[in-house]
Amino acid sequence: MTATSRPSPAGKRVLLAAPRGYCAGVDRAVIAVEKALEQYGAPIYVRHEIVHNKYVVQTLEKKGAIFVEETAEVPEGSIVMFSAHGVAPVVHDEAASRNLATIDATCPLVTKVHKEAVRFAEEDYDILLIGHDGHEEVIGTSGEAPDHITLVDGPDDVANVEVRDDSKVVWLSQTTLSVDETMETVDKLKEKFPLLIAPPSDDICYATQNRQIAVKQMGADADLVIVVGSKNSSNSVRLVEVALGAGAGAAHLVDSADEIDPAWLEGVTTIGLTSGASVPEVLVEGVLEWLAPRGYEDVEIVKAAEETITFSLPKELRRDLRAEAAALANK
Fold this sequence. Notes:
By secondary structure, the protein is an alpha/beta fold. The protein is built from 10 helices and 12 strands.
């Protein structure tokens, strides 16, 4: 999408965030399901939604993916894929006990946090995991070191935190949080535990940060910000919060253009538009197409960063795809 040159009536315009939409981890996970369906045929079972987006899940279901909540729902001897949010070690054990072939589509940035949790637990640290209670990523990370991890669900939860030894405390975080809220929580934790140490590198993923930066840049200029994303997508929900914090007149989360209320546009000259990291671009294009006949034809790009990161497919698929390619080459 490029900026249009035709001015809109009464100065109406859309500020279109860049980057937006799919991050490398989501792209990898969605392609992994598609490749698995091509490679092995339907059905492919996926434990939990592969990513938190209603449109993506429904599209993959039509292609033959079956999404389940628990490993026990997968027929013995079948193929099961683990979602981008990651799973606890016990889930791998459950899959093995049911003779399931597994494909692990956990985002590599989530895997990094898992490895940090294991390492700090082995060194007998108390680990304060900043995240949202019940989120699949938090459940997976906590499962790596359940005896060492305490969940801290935002700055208001800090008062409840207790540790064994305040000289051996480290914080980690869910990858899809608001950077500002996370650092507010960290600051409060540091007041309580002055010797608190930070993870060796940022836990909040680059894509989450970049999308928040773009929204901050447009927020003060926007009468309304529309965030395309599903309600169970943590990073999409955070974008609404970031937009309001940056000064947007209003901000709303929608799964698609069908959910936009025309009343939101009353008195609105400038609309900011972005999408969460699990949202395909077709949904953003749908919003632009909905806005254009209502006078918002002038589109300006607000560019916060250039993203070039890509992740290779899960090793299980790479191995089988290589074998297939070799077999075809020898025919």
